[in-house]
Write a structure and sequence with these properties.
single chain, 399 residues, alpha+beta, Arc Repressor Mutant, subunit A, Aminopeptidase, five-stranded mixed beta sheet, four-stranded mixed beta sheet, 13 helices
Length: 399
Amino acid sequence: MLTISGQQARRFILAKQGLIGAYRFAGKDGAYRYVRQAGCIQFDPVDVCGKNADLTLQSRVKGFKKTMLSDLLYKDRMLVDYFDKELSIWPTEDWPYFSPYRERSRAAGETFPGMGQLKEQALEYICEHGPVSSDTLPVDGEIFWHSTIHWSGNWHKDSKAARSVLEQLYTEGALIVHHKNGSRKFYDIAERYIPRELLTADDPCGDEAAHISWRMLRRIRAVGLLWNRNSPAFLGIELNAEKRRAALERLEAEGEVCPVRVEGLKPVFYCSSDDVGLLQSVIDESADIKPRMEFIAPLDPLLWDKALIRALWDYEYSWEIYTPPEKRRHGYYSLPILFGERFAGCIETAADRKKGVLTVKGLWWEPGVRQTKKLQAALDSTLRRFAAFNDCHTIDIIC
């Protein structure tokens, strides 16, 4: 078992995620390669200075533009919107792995009176007329139903029948998101866009234990290092301590992961065996760790486990979008500032794309961060890139 220092752990995670040194990802191809590496990136519709998925990519992909992700999703069809770590975006090639959840959704949908008839009606209309939203599908009435995907919770609601049947068909895999107009989703028949060999493929895992192992390995690869403890990084996977331990033992026995000790921390960490070479380059000090500054998305894979961030970086971050204003430490939509191998602070910005102005509403530096010319130059450069990413040509600092 390798034993590494906390600094080596930090450097490895940042190098693995492409957040330190020269950019490893560039352009649309780089955006796709990063999503494949991460397995999934989380989607959130709120757009103050970019949506979460776009923010995740802009910090890693040189020259990233929002149209790149849209093209990968809705033109190239190399990525899909679906559930994984809550609402997520992941590679279309992974479609067969989620067949157990689609099957579970189909079985659960059959328990709702009238759902079968609604599905037939909706599919017939979409086959004839093309993509629809809940506002354009001519299905009237309401239906009392609950979510059929376990990771969406076991909540109940009264909902428009059109919305309910579209969400049901979507979770079953009969429909996919064709495109979005703002936050509104338009659905179309999945087989029109996803290759038949993927749609009809059997579950590659075969059983629940193998499926859990596959998904845990995916999350480990996304973060770089994860520990053997209850972690939000495993959200969406049906886990308890016993299942988690069994999956890690299986992955280690199969040579998929390597255990790692981090000095000063009790839990055992795991990294993908494919990343041992990168970890060794960090240990040997041959890895590229040239510092750069990035603004990090609120639901970024780097931040999936905030307890891990506290343990390794001694940094506290809370996404305060749902926090009452009087209780916020920072801003409504503040982003952590990564500078080199440390979290230097956080920043709150808002983009007015009609006026082309990016407003800096708040800037908070961590204790001990020196206000040097190097820091200011990095901030100025990062703000210019961030403004361009948000289609803004002017930066207004009001804090």
